[in-house]
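Hi F.,

I've been meaning to write this up properly since the lab meeting, where we talked about keeping a consistent format for the predictions we share between groups. The idea is simple: the sequence comes first, exactly as it goes in, then the C-alpha cells exactly as they come out, then a line or two of notes. No screenshots and no reformatting. I'm using this chain as the first example so we have something concrete to point to.
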Amino acid sequence: MTAFWDGLMGNLEIALILFFFVWLFGWAKGSLGNAKLAVLFAIIVVYLTVFQYRELVWLAVGLFLFATFGKEFFSKIGGSN
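Output, unedited:
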C-alpha cells in the first residue's frame, strides 16, 4: 500500500511542478515582455527551486494560493472597520 501512496505523491508533485511552470511563465511573459526570455526564466527558476529541493513544490502551491486568494482575503479582514 505504501507504493501506491508514493506513486500518487510523485504524480501529484509532477502535476504541481508543471502547473507552477505554466503560472510562472505567464507571469514572466507579462513582466518581461519576451516569450523566449520568459521560458528561459521559468526553466531556470523551476529547476533551481523545485528539482534541487523537491519539497519546495508545496511552497510554490502556497504562493499561488496566496496570490490568487490572499489579496481578497486580507482586504476583507482589513476592511471590516
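Notes:
The mean pLDDT is 83.
The chain is about 85% helix and 0% strand.

If this format works for you, I'll send the rest the same way.

G.
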